[in-house]
Design a protein that fits this description.
mainly beta; eight-stranded antiparallel sheet; two-stranded antiparallel ribbon; 2 helices; about 10% helix
């Protein structure tokens, strides 16, 4: 995840969104999974006043290419001012809306650029009213209801597992980064 040599020398705008997903305990030591997914490679649903891209999960019979190890729906959305969008999501899912740009209203919540809106297992859908042209992501998934212990980039279930993950990283068991950048 670094800019091309040309971009590093010439500069410009570059937007990268990373989805880091906690995994159930039984998969914590699986081989890592990474998917670089451009806007052009993402399955798209075009509406009259919005574009919805399905990154992961199944949304309106469109399946996103990113793999998850627990039930999730991850979407990128661009919507025009005045649109009202309904996102049917399972009632067991928690949902977070992160607003990259714009202004959105939902029930008694209002969010603007760089705000997060949180919806906790409280219905069959999330309705968003777009108050300004907006770009946002929807991260929705079923809680895995396991303990969490974290340290830096490591997310495990217990402090003992964190200690082991640190030992594994320091000894090279998690791989070694060989960097060359001209």
């Amino acid at each position: 995840e670094r800019p091309s040599k040309h971009f590093a020398k010439s500069g410009g705008e570059n937007e990268i969104i990373q989805f880091w997903v906690n995994t159930p305990a039984q998969h914590k030591t699986d081989d890592p999974y990474y998917l670089a997914l451009s806007k052009e490679q993402t399955p798209t649903i075009e509406l009259e006043n919005a574009i919805i891209q399905v990154v992961a999960g199944d949304f309106q019979n469109v399946v996103g290419p990113a793999q998850t190890l627990s039930p999730q729906t991850l979407l990128r959305v661009e919507a025009e001012k005045g649109a009202t969008l309904n996102f049917p999501l399972p009632p067991t899912f928690n949902t977070l809306v992160y607003i990259l740009e714009g202004k959105i209203n939902s029930e008694n919540l209002t969010g603007k650029t760089k705000d997060m809106m949180w919806f906790e297992n409280d219905g069959e859908q999330v309705e968003l009213k777009i108050e300004e042209d907006s770009r946002f992501i929807i991260l929705s998934g079923e809680p895995i209801n396991e303990p969490i212990s974290t340290y830096g980039p490591f997310v495990m279930n217990t402090p003992t597992e964190i200690t082991q993950a640190l030992r594994d990283a320091q000894s090279g068991k998690l791989g070694i980064l060989n960097e060359t950048f001209e």
